[in-house]
UniProtKB/TrEMBL annotation:
Protein's name in the database: DENN/MADD domain containing 5B
Biased composition (Low complexity): 159-197, 441-453
Compartments, record wording: Membrane
Organism: Labrus bergylta
Domain RUN, chain residue ranges per copy: 812-972, 1158-1309
PROSITE patterns named in the record: DENN, PLAT, RUN
InterPro entries in alphabetical order: cDENN_dom (IPR001194), dDENN_dom (IPR005112), DEN5A/B (IPR047278), DENN_C (IPR043153), PLAT/LH2_dom (IPR001024), PLAT/LH2_dom_sf (IPR036392), PLAT_RAB6IP1 (IPR047277), Run_dom (IPR004012)
Amino acid sequence: MSGSSAGSGAAPCRLVHYFVICGIDTETGLEPDELAALYQWLEADRQGTDPDAAATGENLEQSPLRRTFKSKVLARYPENVEWNPFDQDAVNMLCMPKGLSFRTQAEPRETQFHSFIITKEDGSRTYGFVHTFYEEVTSPQICSAMQTLYQMHNAENTSSNPPSSSSSSSSSSSSSSMDSLASSLDEADSPASSSSSRRPGGYDSSRDTLYVSKALCLITPMPFMHASRRFLSQMHRAVTDSSAPPLPLESYVHNILYEVPLPAPGRSLKFHGVYEPIVCQRPGPGELPLADFPLAETFSLLGVENLVQVFTCTLLEMQILLYSQDYQRLMTVAEGITTLLFPFQWQHVYVPILPASLLHFLDAPVPYLMGLQSKEGTDRSKLELPQEANLCFVDIDNHYIELPEDFPHFPNESEFVQELSEVLLSFGISAISGAPPRTRTPGSAPGSAPSTPGRERRTAVLRQLEDDGRNGNLAGEELAVLELLQGNATLERLQALTKRTGVTVARVDALRARIKSQSIEGQGGRTAAEEEELRNAKLNVQLREVFASRFITMFADYEAFVIQSAPDLESWLTNREQMHNFDKASFLSDQPEPYLPFLSHFIETQMFATFIDNKIMSQWEEKEPLLRVFDTRIDKARLYNVRAPSLRSSSYQRCSVLKEAAQAIEQRLMKIDHTAIHPHLLDMKIGQGKYEQGFFPKLQADVLNTGPSNNKWSHRTATTQRRNDRHRQQSEHLTLDNDLKEKYMQEARSLQKNLRQPKLSDLSPAVIAQTNWKFVEGLLKECRVKTKRMLVAKMGREAVELGHGEANITGLEENTLIASLCDLLERIWSHGLQVKQGKSALWSHLLHYQAREEKLEQQAESPVSNVPERRKSESSIGMPYLRVSLIQDMRHIQSMSEIKTDVGRARAWIRLSLEKKLLSQHLKQLLCRQALTKKLYKRYAFLRCEEEKEQFLFHLLSLNAVDYFCFTSVFTTIMIPYRVVIIPIKKLSNTMTTSNPWVCVSGELGDSGIMQIPKNVLEMTFDCQNLGKLTTVQLGHDNAGLLAKWLVDCVMVRNEITGHTYRFPCGRWLGKGVDDGSLERVLIGELVLSTAEEDSGRGCRTPPLQRSPSQIRRISITSMSARGSKPTSAQIQEGIGEAVNNIIKHFHKPEKERGSLTVLLCGENSLVAALEQFFHHGFKSARLFQKTVFVWDFVEKAVAYMESADQMGDLQETAEPRGMTCQSLCHYVNAINSTRRNIGKDGKFQLLVCLGARDRLLPQWLPLLVECPVILRMYEDTALLRDRTTVNALIGVVETLHDFPITLEASLVKGIDL
C-alpha cells in the first residue's frame, strides 16, 4: 500500500515531495465555487428541472459568510517533481474540501489538521497533510465585496421573507434527497446558534475584522502523519509567535523538501522543525508496512465489535460509507481499516474524503470505500443514499454502524474481539464494545442518529452520555477517570472509608499503578509528545499483528491450492481470463466448518484474486512486498508449529509476536539511526524573508524551486538511480516489452474492476458521462464472468471434459455464487436511479410494475399475465397447467411472513425465478414496460442502454441450462402448497376404486403425514411446510368394497410455488389377490422436465435423478415373460457393481450435497433392483396352472426350513456365529411378515435388502440362502445363486458398504419393530 511510488527505482528517497499553500487569491477576489455550481447542475438534472437555470442563479438566501468561495493553490515548492506530477485541482479540492471559509473576530477560529490521499489510476498513492488556520483579510477590495454581498443578502431577505421566518428553513425544506449529502456546501463548522446571533449585524467592514482560512500542506509519498503534523504546527507557530523564528521560514521549507531523506527500511530518522526535533521511523523488510494513522482512535470511535464487523464488510468488498463531521476522523478510520487488510489490498474506489462535487459517485454500482462529511445536526434518517442493499453505513460521530443483510461473520469473531480488547486494555484504553450493529429492518427510520440541532452546546456532553451508541461505556481513557477520582474530595473520602472497612478498590489501585509505571517509563528523556507517539506506534503494530495472525492461520496452506498452469508470464497474462488460478473447492473442503460461510464469500473477491495473481507472477518477477512479508510469516509459523494440521483446526490461536513487534519499534525510536542536516541560512538577497506576525509570508520561489546539488545524500540517490537503470535495461532484454506487459497487466487486473478510482480534477458533464459508460461496461463484464462461473461450476464433469477446469461445486459455494448474483442485480438496478424508494432498487421496480399491471388488470378484468402458457408435456399428463406469471411469483414472496425486508424479498424473488428457470424471462418482461423504466431511471442508467441490456439478459438466460434448488433449499420453514395427481392405467383397471385411498409425500426435509384422498377423486392439493426435494410417495388403500383392486400407472406431485413436478412411477396393482398382494407401495420420484426445458436443455443438463423401477421392468421380472429380453449374467453382475459404486460415491460427497440415499437403494438401477435381478436369474417362478411364485416365497421357505432344522437340533453342530446369523435372518423376516403394513411380497424383499444393508448383515445372510436345500427345488442348475464363485464375488462387493452409515428414510421402515 505504502511503498508503490517510493519503491520504484525512479522515485528518489525524499521524505516530502511538495510544500503547498492554499487560500484566497486577492487578484481575482471573491469567486463563487464552481464545484458548488456543478453540484447544483447535477442536482437539477437529477430532479428533472432545467440544469442551466440552476447553474446560473446565485445562492442568495444563504448568509455570505456561509457561502462557498473558490480557494486557489497560491504557491507550491518545487514547481514540479517528475516522478510525482502535481495535480493542482485535486490538491486544491482536498486541501479545502469546502472551499474558503470566512469568520469575523466574534467567531471561534480554531486551527484544524486533516489528511487526504490521492490514488492515481494505476493504484499508486500519494498522501497529503493539511494544517488550516485563519488569517486576517487585508485586501480592501475583498472586505468591500463581502460588505456588498451582505447588503444584497439583507435586501433580498427583507423583500422575500417576513422577518419571522429564517432563511435557513426555506433552504432546508427542499425535497431533494441529496440535500443532506451537500452538507459541505451548505454549512461551515460553526454552530447554528452563533450564526443566528450574528445575523442582525452581519458583517460591517467599519466595525468587524474579517478572517479567511488558509492551508499549509505537505505532499509525501508515504503516510508519515505524525511527523508532518508536528512540522506544520511548528511552521504555523512561527508566524503567530510574538518573536520571529530563529531562521527565515524558507530555510525550514528548503530543509524538509531537499535535505530530509526518507528513512531507509528498518531505520529511524531525526530532522529539525522550527523549534524542536521530529522523529519518524520506517518498518524493516520483514515487518508489516508503514501505517502512521492512530488505530487507537479508530477503535475508540467505533468500538471493537463494530470495527470487526466493518472490517468483515471491507474484506467481502461491500460498499462502505463513512460519515463524520471531521475530515481527519474519516481519514483515520478509512486508513485504519485498509491497513488491517494485510496481506490483501482494497482494489476498488477509495475516496476517504469525498468532495461535494463528487457526490454522484455514491451512485457507483461498484464496491467502494468513501468518506462523507456530515453537517452538524443532520439526522441520519434524512440521508437518502442511492443504494443501500449492499451498503455498510458507518456513523463515526455517533459510534454506530448499519450492516447489509445476511453477511457472514468473521471466523472466531468473539475470541478475536476478546484478544483485541486485551491489547487495548494493556495500553490503558477501555475496550468499548460499540453499539450493537443495526441491520436494516422495515418500518423504522434507518437508525436515526441521535443528534438534533435544537439542543444547546452545553448539553452536548450529556447527550453523548445518554445517546452514546457504545452502551454507556465511555470512550475516555482511564487517565481521565483517575483524574476525576483524585480531584474529587467526596470521592476521595468515600474511597478512604471503603478502605477502612476492608473493601479494596482494586480497579482504581490498578489504574494508579499502571499510570504511575507509565510515567516512570516515560522519563527516558523524551517529551510528552514523543512518549505519546511511541505509545501509539507500539499499539498500532500490536493491533495489526493480531489481525495479520488471523490471516496467517486461515491461509497457512494457501500455496498448495494455487494452480500454476502457464509456462511463462506472457502466456499467463494473455489467457488470464480463461484460467483457473486457485482450486477453490479443494481449499474449502480442507477448512474447518465454522470458517466456511466467510471463506466461501471471501475467495470470490477481487482482493483475493489479485493476491493469487501476485503469487503466480512471483515465479517470473520480484515478489510484491506485502506478499513477501506474508509468505515469510507463514514459513515461520510452520517452523514453530511442526504439526501443520493444528494450523487448520478451528480452535482460536492467539498472536504470539506482540512483544517482538513492539520492541522493534521502540528500539528504532530510542536509538536514532540517521539525523538529517539542520536547517541553515540560504543564499537569499538582503531584505528577503521579512516577517510580519500573524501572516504567513510570501516565500522566495527562487531558493525553494531547486535543491542543493552537493549533498552526499542526493549523490547516493544518483548512484542508486544509475544502478537501477542498468538493472532495468538487462531485465527488459529478458522479459517481454514493458509497455506490452503493462497493457496486459492493466487488462488482467481490470477484470471485474470497472473503474478503480475517480479522477478528481476534470469534472465536466462529458467526463461524468464517460465514467457512467465505464460503469455500464463493467457491470456487463461482471455479469458475463459471474454467469460463466455459475455454469462451469454447476455443470461438473461435462465442463471438465470440455476443458473448463475444476469440477465439483459445493452447496456452500453455489450459495455464495447466487448471493453474489443477487448483489450484482441490486447494483445494476441501483445504477442511474431517478428517485430512490426503499432499500432495494429491484424490489421497488417490481412493486411499480405490479401496481401498474394490477391497475390494467382491474380495467380489463383479464387474467394476470399475457405470457404464453407453458405447453403441457406428454410426461406430465393429468397435471393442470401452472401459469407462468411474474406477478404470481411476487405474490408468493409477499405472502412469506418469514421475510421482513425489501432486500430479503428481492433476493427470495431472484432465487425463486432462478429455480424456475424464469429469471431472464421475468426480467425481460419487467423491462419491456419502457415507459416505467424511463420514469424510474436516468438516461445513462445501465437498464436504458439497449444493447447492453440485451446481452445481460442473454447471459442470464444461459443459467437455464442447469438445475438450481436455491429457493427450496434456503427457505426451509415456509408453507408450500403441493398438488397430487394419481394416474391409473385405464385400459386394464377401473379408473376409480371403491376403497379408501391414502397418500404420504416425503422429501429431504420431512414428510406430509398420511392424508386420506376423497373417494373418486384423483387430484388433491395440500399445504405443508417445505419438504425440500421430494424423494418418495407412499400410496395405499384399505381394500374396502367390491372394486378394491387398483392398477396405478404413476403419481405426480407438484410444488405450486417453484413449479417443480415429480413423477413417481408405479405400474403395479394395489389389491389383495392380485400381483404380489400389496395394498401399499413406496414409490421413488424423478424430477420431470417441462417441454420448453427439454427443447432448450438437451445435451447440457445435469443428469436426471433416478426413480422407482419402471412398470416394464417390474412386470418382466415378476412374470419372466419373454417379452422383455432377459439380462445376461454378466449384465446382472455389472449392475450390482454399479449400484454399490453409486452408494459409495454418495458417501464421498460432502454431507450437504448428497441427495437422496433412498433412490440409490430402491430406485431404478438401485441396489434392490440389482439384487432382484440376481435372485430372479434361473428362478422357477411361472408354474403352469399355478399362481406366480415370488423371490420372497423362496426367502420364506428358506427361513421355515432353518427354523425347523433349529428345532430338530441340526444346527447345533454349526459354528456359533453361523447359528447367530440364522437367528438374525429368521428374526428380520418374521418382523417384516408380522408388520401391519400391507406392502406385498416385492415390497417385503425390498425392505429385507434395505435393513440388511443398514445393519451390515447382507453378506452373512447370502451363504445361508445358498446352502439351504430349498434352493434345489426353486432354482435351475445354471442360476447365479447356485454358482459359489459368483456368490462369493457378490458377498465381497456388498461387504464394501460396511464402511458407511446407511440410514433409511422413515417411509421405508415405518411399522417395523426390530
